[in-house]
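## Example record

The block below lists the input lines for one assembly entry, exactly as stored, with component labels intact.
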Amino acid sequence: MSKFKKKKNGEQPAINTASLPDIVFMLLFFFMVATVMRDNTLMVKNTLPAADQIQKLDKKDRVIYIYAGKPSERYQKKYGDQPRIQLNDKFSVVSDVGAYILAERATKREELQNVLTTSLKVDGDTNMGLISDIKQELRKVNALKINYTTRVGDYTQNN
Amino acid sequence: MARKSPEVNAGSMADIAFLLLIFFLVTTTIETDSGINRKLPPMEDVIDPPIIKQRNIFTVVVNKNNDILVEEKPMQLSDVRSAAVRFLDNGGGIGEEACDYCKGDKDRSSSDNPDKAIISLKNDRETDYKVYISVQNELVAAYNELRDREFLAMYPNQRMTFVEANKYYSDPRTSPKAKIEIKPKLDVLKRMYPQKLSEAEPSKIN
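Predicted structure tokens for the full assembly:
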């Protein structure tokens, strides 16, 4: 009979946590690898419009970003509240766009220089005039592939 | 015999790892940007622009009050997609310009065939970007709707729509063999309904 009797030791053995660091490190490495640190700080308001007929943007190394929108609140005193273009970490004017594209293009590998896409990250409340000016500049430097970067959603979210 | 050194206490290892983990968790942005791809026209001016019949042009104007005018008549954004589909799929041409896969009204006063049909999108300098994008989105949706329909009809074995197939094609995980197989099918559809969407320069005077 005593064969089936449960051992009653009173205390339960402590759970071995020796492998906990391993598990955590595994997660850590995953996030370290998957992390992309934001390389430029946004100085403009940037609520992208929503669209659902979208295509994924190419690999990161083939994309040049142009931001535009109203300056964020802390810059409004200095730069006013009219929509501005942000290139790399500073506010720019339309005539700088061409030089910026050429400079960015020169930093890319030679085989990628012809397949670059320009991603326009523009705030939804910007007037089209600014965007048309940017597009004209892009045409001048022959950067014809553009992408109106949006967030996912349908058009009813744009009101 | 050497003295046994005391074991290092590894209890805090987990804490350190957690700290790092939380840092990377917070800074991580697993994001892939997506948006509407467009190709700008090259700068050099066409000396002799081809003459396009008025019935083959579908004009969409977004004015400075963000009102949408389709073929000079005001229209709600929700109706733009179906109007564009009707225009593209009209297939009113006869003889050489006939369109045998179009399911539209065959109206003589609308587009001849999808290859001839051009959508012209005009905007004002004061137009809001988000409205412009919404309209672009609806127009692209019209093309995608038609391409989806024909893709399903022509390649039912594929078990996906054109948009899905396109996504599958551009997915880096897709094997090269599958890509080669699917590419000609996508090209056929792109030839059937070519995306001819012209973005005119905005009008300054209104």
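Chain A touches chain B through 57 residues (CB under 8 Å). Residues 50-149 of chain A form a domain with the Nucleotidyltransferase; domain 5 fold (CATH 3.30.420.270).
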